[in-house]
Amino acid sequence: MRITSVAFDTDDLGRAESFYGSVLGLPTRYGDGALTVQAGASRLVLREGDPGPGRQHLAFTIPRLMFDTAKRWISERVPLLRDSEGRDDFETSPHWNAHSLYFEDADGNILEFIIRRDIADDRTGPFRPEHVLAISEVGVPVGDVPAVAARAEAAFGIEAYGTGTSDFRPIGNVEGLLILVAPGRHWFPTTVPSGSTSLSVHIVGKAAGSLEPAHGITIHSDIMRI
């Protein structure tokens, strides 16, 4: 499963363009009242509107041998987020087989650079914006996490990824994960609450269809074209 696009609202498109275009150095373009950011194989579409309470979460996969150079690169541009013990990068469970760091965008959304060792990309050298491979995680706040996970499996064939709880459940695979969370649950490693009044996610690699797991939130699955 791959995430081809994610769309949500921002109340300041200019501020968003400065961050994603100038700070992260990703290609951006305006059109139809929105800013489109090209993040490797995925698109992030920021629409002009009220983002509402809470914040979004996105993870960007980077090549698995470039974590150290990516950390140096991003830490020169934005502060890294730390947990309560002061750590600013994190090893996942063996099932995830990944390592990541976190930072905020201009709206306070929680972004992540993550290497996934099961994705074979062995490029080395200095990190550059073009080394962002794709959006591989998007947070999806829903009222009933287990019920929405079951609906997504029935609609698209998306299965659970690792273990979950009643308020946190990743579904998908190493290339693309929907992180189902209860509204208000804190995004790791912060105390920033999750929440969204408008979120649209497009995926490929599963059965085609659409699902509205919560008001204002839609998941679209498209047939992959070769």
TrEMBL record:
PROSITE patterns per the UniProt record, alphabetical: VOC (PS51819)
Signal peptide bounds: none
Protein name: VOC domain-containing protein
Residues in VOC domain copies: 2-116
Record organism: Sinomonas atrocyanea
